[in-house]
Amino acid sequence: MSKQYWHSLDGDEVLVALEALLSGLSSDEANARQDRYGPHQLPAPPRQGALRRFLLHFQNV
Fold it and tell me: What's the pTM value of the predicted model, to 2 decimals?
């Protein structure tokens, strides 16, 4: 699929491009897409060390 400007598409065009229905995906299709693309989850942000968190308290002083 080429680069899409999703905000400029009609809702029906988006559904066609994503091969989805207005009523949603079936459980089988949702599981297949999750297997193909992975879970719908953002990666956890990197944790800051204790020293950095402590020093950030003095950032506005």
Answer: 0.56
